[in-house]
Write the structure tokens for this entry.
Amino acid sequence: MKPEHIAMNEYVKDLLTCPRCHIIITPPYQQCKMGHLRCSSAECETSDSETVCYCGETFLMFKISSLEKIYDALVFTCKFSQNGCIEVSLKAKDLKKHEEGCKFSPKNNPEMGKISTK
Ligand SMILES: [Zn+2]
Ligand SMILES: [Zn+2]
Ligand SMILES: [Zn+2]
């Protein structure tokens, strides 16, 4: 992968990152009239936030399929990279599966867990 592709990947991730909880927002995407994306993380999700954005506008009830395709094209780094995993170009659909079976996960490798929690 060329560096400019990596920069583009990071830029798009930035655009999809929730300004409140700093977690990348995952599909399905919903947008309010002001263009804010709805974040469904545990931190941002309240009973009100399902229909009303933090800016007070209601969410528009249509799918933003172009954004979903962009999300599918992004590549992610395995969250266990700090433990030594070298997977840095996983597609979103493969990421979860990989992380569940990743040999650098504390769950799959108790020794690794001891090291990272010391
Ligand atoms: Zn959020
Ligand atoms: Zn809004
Ligand atoms: Zn991994």
Remarks:
- The CA atoms of residues 94 and 111 lie 25 Å apart.
- The mean pLDDT is 89.
